[in-house]
Amino acid sequence: MKKNIKLVAFDLDGTLLTDDKQITEATWEALKELAKREVLLVPCTGRPLSGIPEELVQFPGVRYLISANGARVVDVKEKKVLREELIPVPLAERVLKIFYKYDCLRELYYDGEGVVGQAGYDRVAQYHRSPAVVQYFLGSRQPVPDLWDKFYQENRPVDKVQGVFREISEKARAYEELAQIPEIAITTSLVNNLEINLKDVTKGSVLCEFAEGLGIARDEIMAFGDGDNDLEMIAMVGTGVAMENGIPELREKADYVTVTNNEDGVAKVLVQQLLMEG
């Protein structure tokens, strides 16, 4: 291989997956070849564990999953949680109260599963306009009669809190309120969402600390991303790759900018930088 890369991390939406939420044949072939060469392949996503495509979970080259922007790290082979960075109940309650001031689709992540109120679940198409995203959401979220009731019944820390807004102006106002809470990290992966994690919990920090525990240095990591919640990951690893469809700030931080997620952007870099001989 051209680079001494021992671990490849990749965001899912807008990166590894096409807009139709598929993994192309070219991408599968590149991942299979890396797995043969014993390169660790680590999905690193804002999704809950329940939202990670089953074909990736079952793929022999994937042993570890980083979900909810780093809040949960799982060993797939051993079927155990290796790390949790959860939002305490009082802090999650404060965030949820702010989200309830606005017209947004509110979600809580518990134990790697996304939970949403039934009313929001039934109206998902008003918040997610892409049919592929709606289908993904309906297939990966657990509807409950009332989200507040679920929160108080559980009475325990959450992986992540998310709000998906109908109006960008409301997202901006919610962000201003949330920014007054120093104990949280606020990121986005969509134009109209806000993702809340515990402070200092990001894909980048968790990925690099996790890799270090495996004896893998930052300069031995290649990572791919497209959104705001990928910024630290792309900046912290040895080789950061941004998608052409990614946000401008990410493209500026990256070592490489590849073509879009609909044009096999991940596969092309893997082939050119890691798999081509010579």
From TrEMBL:
CDD domains: HAD_Pase (cd07516). InterPro entries: Cof (IPR000150), HAD-like_sf (IPR036412), HAD-SF_hydro_IIB (IPR006379), HAD_sf (IPR023214). Transmembrane segments: none annotated. The keyword Cell inner membrane does not apply. Keywords: Hydrolase. PROSITE patterns: COF_1, COF_2. It comes from the Bacteria. This is Cof-type HAD-IIB family hydrolase. It comes from Ohessyouella blattaphilus.
